[in-house]
Specification:
Radius of gyration: 27 Å
Shape: globular
Number of helices: 19
Strand content: 5-15%
Distance between the termini: 73 Å
Strand order of the largest sheet: 15-14-13-12-7-6-4-5-2-1-17
Length: about 575
C-alpha cells in the first residue's frame, strides 16, 4: 500500500532570500541600537560604563558563558527523562504543548524535574531556616528561568508563530527588547493606554498644600453630609498614590468619597537631590504629623482617621508611638493598616535580597546623587514574582513579538518613584534587618524614644493571604505590639489585588474572627469567610469610631477654607519622575 511522503518541501530561493532579509534587519536593529549607545557613551544600550569596565568584551563573554551554561543545564534536566504528573500551569496552557509528543515530553520532564529540585531543598540537612529560605528562593528562581517556555527552540507556540509570520515576531520582539533596554524597564502593559489625570487618578479634588516632601490633595465631596472626622491616607512613598485611585470602577478614593468620607491624600514627591538628605524623622514629623495637623487645623477638628499602606503603615506606627510619647495621641482617632509590617522577623522573601553585596551595590548606585532610581526597586519587586512579572513578558513581548495587554495596575507598577538613598538604606538596615522598631526604645524620632507597646489607638489591620511582600504572618505581629482595640481582616489575594478589590467586582473573599485569637493560625482556624470585598467591613468599623456627620460645605469643599487650591488633583508631584 502506497504511503504519502511527509518530507517537508525544500526551501525555495524566495524563502532563503526572505530569511536572509529577516536576519539582516535584525542585525541592522542591533547595530543601530549599539551606535545610539556609543553616542551616549554607553557600551551597551541603556548600560552606563564604570571606569573598571570600559571594555565591553569581558561583559559580553561572561554573558555568553552564562547563557551557554543555562542551556547546558536545561539539556541535563531534559535528560532525566522523568514523566511528570499533570499540572495546571498557564505557561503550558496552549494545546501545542500536549498535541506534539516531543513538546509534551519536554513539558512533563521539566515539571517533574522542577518538582524534584524544589523538594530537594526541604531534604538538605544541616541548614538553618534562614539558609533554607535563601536556597528555596534561589532554586525557585532558577526553575522559573529555565522553563522551556522561555526559549524559542523549546516553545512550540513561538516556533509556530515564527513560521506563520516568517520571522516577523522575532523582529518585533527584538524591537521591544531594545526599547526596554533603552528605557531601563521591561514593558508590562500597552504603552499609551493610560494617563494620570485622564483615565487614572481622576477623582475630582484640589491640591491644597505643597511642601518639599509631599502634596496634600483634598477630594471634592459628592454627598450632602460627610463624616465629622476626616480621613488622611498615607500611600507608600516607594510608589505613586494612585494605586488607590486607578480607573473609576477600581478606585478606593472614589468609593470613600461616594460613601460620605471627608478625604485627604498625601502625594509624596519622587526624590531628587533636594530631598536626598531626608530621614525617618522627616517622614514622621514633616510628612505624617504635619499632614495630620494641617487637616485638623483646616477643618477645625481635634483628630483624623489615618490609613498607612505598606511602608507608610510602618511609619504610621512610628508616628502613633511618637504622638503617644508626646502626649498627643488624640490627634489620630483611628488607624488603618493596609499590608503593613512593624515587626520584620518573618518579613518574607524581600529579606533574602538584603545581603552585604546588595547593600554595597546600593551605595555604588546612589553615591553620585544620593538618590536611588526607582527602576531598581521595581526590578527587585518583579524578581520576587519572576514567573509572572518577568518571564511571562519575555515570552509575550520578545519571543512572540506581541504588545502586552493594557492593564492599569501594571501601568502603576511601572510608574516608579525615586527614593532618598540614605533613608532607604536606613529603612532596610534598621527596620528590615535590625528589627529595631519592634524594640521598646529601639529607635527615636527627633530624639524621642518610641515604643509600639504604648499605642492604644483603635486599629484596623488588613493583610493579604497570598502577599509575598508583607506576608500575613508578618502583618499579624501588629496585633501583639499595639495595646488598643484591634480588628484583623485577612483578604484574599496579595499585596495589591488584596487591597484594591472594590465591592462591585465581586471578586475574592475575606476572613474575620470575632473572638480574640492569640495567633494567626488560631485566627484562621476560627475565622468566618465572607465573599467579595472587605471594604464595606472597614467602612462599618470606621463609622463605629465616630458616626457623627456634618454638612459638606465651607472648608469641607476643597479650596474654600484656610487653604486655597493650588492646582487640580492629582497634582504635579505624581507626574514628576
Amino acid at each position: 500500500m502506497a504511503t504519502e511522503s511527509t518530507t517537508p518541501p525544500f526551501p525555495t530561493i524566495e524563502d532563503w532570500q526572505h530569511w536572509t532579509l529577516v536576519m539582516g534587519r535584525a542585525q541592522q536593529m542591533l547595530m543601530e541600537a549599539w551606535a545610539d549607545g556609543l553616542k551616549a557613551g554607553e557600551p551597551l544600550p541603556g548600560v552606563k560604563p564604570s571606569p573598571a569596565a570600559a571594555d565591553p568584551m569581558p561583559w559580553l563573554t561572561a554573558s555568553a558563558d552564562a547563557w551557554s551554561k543555562g542551556f547546558e543545564s536545561w539539556g541535563r534536566m531534559l535528560g532525566a527523562g522523568q514523566k511528570a504528573a499533570e499540572a495546571k500551569d498557564r505557561r503550558f496552557a496552549a494545546p501545542e504543548w500536549r498535541e506534539n509528543p516531543v513538546f509534551d515530553t519536554i513539558r512533563q520532564s521539566y515539571l517533574a524535574i522542577s518538582d524534584q529540585l524544589l523538594k530537594s531543598v526541604e531534604q538538605v540537612e544541616g541548614l538553618d531556616e534562614a539558609a533554607r529560605q535563601r536556597l528555596r528562593f534561589a532554586t525557585k528562581s532558577f526553575v522559573d528561568a529555565m522553563s522551556p517556555s522561555n526559549f524559542a527552540l523549546t516553545n512550540p507556540q513561538v516556533l509556530k508563530r515564527t513560521m506563520d509570520t516568517r520571522g516577523e515576531n522575532l523582529l518585533n520582539g527584538l524591537k521591544h527588547m531594545l526599547e526596554d533596554i533603552r528605557s531601563g524597564q521591561m514593558t508590562q502593559t500597552r504603552k499609551g493606554a493610560f494617563e494620570v489625570g485622564k483615565n487614572l487618578a481622576t477623582t475630582p479634588g484640589k491640591v491644597v498644600k505643597e511642601t518639599e516632601l509631599y502634596q496634600l490633595i483634598h477630594y471634592t465631596p459628592v454627598t450632602d453630609t460627610v463624616l465629622t472626622t476626616p480621613l488622611v491616607i498615607f500611600p507608600p512613598w516607594i510608589n505613586r498614590f494612585y494605586i488607590l485611585d486607578l480607573t473609576p470602577e477600581k478606585s478606593f478614593v472614589r468609593w470613600c468619597v461616594e460613601n460620605g468620607i471627608s478625604l485627604f491624600m498625601v502625594s509624596w514627591k519622587s526624590a531628587d537631590e533636594s530631598i536626598a538628605h531626608v530621614s525617618l524623622d522627616d517622614y514622621v514629623l514633616r510628612g505624617q504629623v504635619d499632614a495630620i495637623e494641617t487637616v485638623c487645623d483646616l477643618l477645625d477638628v481635634p483628630s483624623v482617621h489615618a490609613i498607612g499602606y505598606c511602608v507608610a503603615g510602618t511609619t504610621l506606627a512610628a508616628t502613633l508611638a511618637y504622638l503617644q510619647a508626646k502626649g498627643e495621641a488624640e490627634k489620630v482617632k483611628s488607624a488603618t493598616f493596609f499590608t503593613a509590617q512593624v515587626d520584620f522577623v518573618q518579613a518574607g522573601d524581600l529579606k533574602l535580597l538584603l545581603g552585604e553585596e546588595v547593600m554595597s551595590l546600593l551605595d555604588k548606585l546612589t553615591e553620585e546623587r544620593g538618590v536611588l532610581d526607582g527602576r531598581y526597586m521595581a526590578a527587585t519587586f518583579n524578581l520576587l514574582r519572576g514567573r509572572d512579572l518577568i518571564w511571562n513578558y519575555v515570552v509575550n513581548n520578545y519571543l512572540l513579538g506581541e504588545e502586552p495587554a493594557p492593564f492599569d495596575l501594571l501601568h502603576w507598577n511601572a510608574d516608579v518613584t525615586n527614593l532618598p538613598a540614605g533613608w532607604h538604606k536606613d529603612y532596610l538596615e534598621t527596620l528590615y534587618k535590625g528589627n529595631k522598631l519592634a524594640e521598646s526604645g529601639g529607635i527615636s524620632v527627633a530624639g524621642t524614644p518610641i515604643d509600639l507597646g504604648t499605642v492604644a489607638t483603635p486599629c484596623y489591620v488588613q493583610a493579604g493571604r497570598e502577599d509575598h511582600i508583607a506576608p500575613p504572618e508578618s502583618v499579624w505581629k501588629i496585633m501583639h505590639h499595639f495595646t488598643g482595640p484591634k480588628r484583623f481582616v485577612l483578604a484574599g489575594s496579595g499585596h495589591i489585588a488584596g487591597v484594591v478589590n472594590p465591592p462591585s467586582a465581586g471578586k475574592y473573599q475575606y476572613w474575620v474572627n470575632e473572638g480574640d485569637p492569640e495567633s494567626l493560625e488560631k485566627f484562621v482556624a476560627g475565622a468566618t469567610e465572607h465573599k467579595g470585598s472587605w471594604w464595606p467591613d472597614w467602612l462599618k468599623w470606621l463609622r463605629s469610631q465616630d458616626p457623627t456627620e456634618v454638612k459638606a460645605d465651607g472648608a469641607r469643599q476643597p479650596g474654600k477654607g484656610k487653604l486655597k487650591a493650588i492646582e487640580d488633583a492629582p497634582g504635579r508631584y505624581v507626574r514628576t519622575r
